Amino acid sequence: MADRMTQTQLIKELAETCGVANKVAKQMLEAYSTIAVRETKKNGVFVLPGVGRLVRVERKARMGRNPATGAAIKIPAKKVVKFRVAKAVKDAIVPPKKK
After folding, report:
1. Phi and psi torsions of 54, nearest 5°
2. 23 and 55 housed in the same domain
3. Which of 41, 38, 7 is nearest to 25 (CA)?
4. What is the pLDDT at residue 40?
5. Would you give the DSSP letter of residue 91?
6. Are 51 and 86 contacting, i.e. CB atoms less than 8 angstroms apart?
7. Which positions ≥6 away from 16 have C-beta within 8 Å?
8. Do 33 and 51 have their domain in common?
9. What integer is the mean pLDDT of 51-67?
10. Residues of the chain with pLDDT > 70: what percent?
């Protein structure tokens, strides 16, 4: 399996593609991630155009089991963040089966 792309490699490729310095590409990437976090926190959703969306979801309280002892435990309600991949991206990466 090939190595995955590092942040440095991503910044370098962004810089080359956009024709800007690595430093500018890094600032743009950091600003983009800061905006994504802020908007998801504020509105509950942030759309990454052409890729997908970050969505804040509220999980209800529920009963669970301690796997070690089997004892029932109460799992409190909490907020989690999920990423929903856009259909176009999903189909591009894993083409749908033809019927």
Report:
1. -90, 130
2. no
3. 7
4. 94
5. H
6. yes
7. none
8. no
9. 94
10. 98
CATH number of the domain that 52 lies in? 4.10.520.10
- Length of the chain, please? 99
**86 Cβ contact list (under 8 Å, min separation 6):** 50, 51, 52, 53
Same domain, 95 and 52: yes
pLDDT in tens, 10-31: 999 999 999 999 999 999 999 9
Average pLDDT over residues 51-69: 94
Model-level pTM? 0.76
Using CA atoms, how far apart are residues 16 and 50, in angstroms rounded to an integer? 20
One-letter amino acid identity for 11? I
Decide if 89 contacts 96 (C-beta within 8 A): no
74 and 55 in a common domain: yes
